[in-house]
Amino acid sequence: MKIGILCYPTYGGSGIVATELGMSLAHKGYEVHFISSALPARLDIANPNIFFHRVNMHTYPLFQYQPYDIALSSMIYRVVNLYKLDLLHAHYAIPYAYAAFTAKQMLKEEGKDVPLVTTLHGTDITLVGQHPSYKHAVEFSINQSDAITSVSESLKKDTLQFFKITKEIQVITNFIDNSEFDECEECNRNQFAEEDEKILIHVSNLRPVKRVEDVLQIFKNVHAKVKSRLIIIGEGPDMEKINEFLEEHPELISKIRLLGKVNDLYRILQLSDVFLLPSEQESFGLAALEAMAAHTPVISSNAGGIPEVNIQGETGYLAEIGNVEAMSNYTIKLLSDENLLARMKRNAKEQAIRFDLKNVLPVYEEMYKDTLTHFKA
Ligand code: GMT
Fold this sequence. Notes:
Layout: E1 2-6, H1 13-27, E2 31-36, E3 50-54, H2 68-83, E4 87-91, H3 93-108, E5 116-120, H4 123-126, H5 135-143, E6 147-150, H6 153-162, E7 169-171, E8 198-203, H7 212-225, E9 228-233, H8 239-248, E10 256-260, H9 265-270, E11 274-277, H10 286-293, E12 298-301, E13 316-319, H11 324-335, H12 338-354, H13 357-376
Parallel strand pairs: 1-2, 1-4, 2-3, 4-5, 5-6, 6-7, 8-9, 8-11, 9-10, 11-12, 12-13
Helix pairs in contact: 2-3, 3-5, 7-11, 10-12
The structure holds ligand GMT.
Ligand GMT binds at residues 12-15, 17, 92, 121-123, 151, 174, 209, 281-286.
């Protein structure tokens, strides 16, 4: 089967899921064509089954804004025609599902068609997708898809609540390849903390929904009780909030490490003791699952789909969004009890194994086959 994957190339969760899915399919013999504005961050193009098509943007003095969606639909149309793709898979409704629908219409004019699968990831539904500038187009392109998947039950519920959806939505959760987390020989905690210090970690694209100010406040509270350090991985608009916090708390500067975007994320997760995810919204929480795969328990909010991944009292603890006090107390409790920490580290890994790629990839494959069968019927 030849599949076209349309996704964001950046460090966001949808791009990561799309890339990992495409690479796993290519590994199994599918021909996978990535169509994006840049090479997706984690894409390894060494596999001969993987193709990458950059969306060509042509600038013109008349354009106040570059029409990316038009260039994207043109590229989808061209790739389907050139490589005879069997199926398109759009990750994130805006603009991918919309542009794919336009490409399909162009193909139909020539008596051709190709089924479109749209995977809803999160803020395409819960935040930006609801803005009046986008809402009708999002609803339209979801309903025009031949199959729709959502990454959690919570996101499915939100989609049905916020939009008039006329088709079935199948939940196919985020997944993790646990084989990439085998014994880490290069994991050297001393690089980041003293022997008697615990390591707290937060990984995100530092947008307001991630509530990085809560991460900092939790660390401040925890550090007052437990010898510890905080690692923050990622870049984004709320970086300034971190700088402001450090200016107000110079005594914590040496305890907080800002690593920006890193390539060896898994290695750093593996030497951490607790992952903080106090998000305002989180359709699933792929970052939490990655932490769990590295044996790291999670202290989180109970936003969106997080409770489907982080289980209260088993893989970590959850509190209401913004309840920094509760999240701090849970972290202190966990880090002060070696037996509890060891148990939760084991539980976190067991939970990650439930979401292993081996279990989720066949569900995607089955969904592709069903979509093709219904499409041809
Ligand atoms: O909305 C975002 O934060 C970006 C988005 C993405 O598409 O890059 O992330 C979402 O998709 C991930 C992968 O499916 C989920 O694990 C994240 O929970 C989700 N983020 C939010 O809902 C905030």
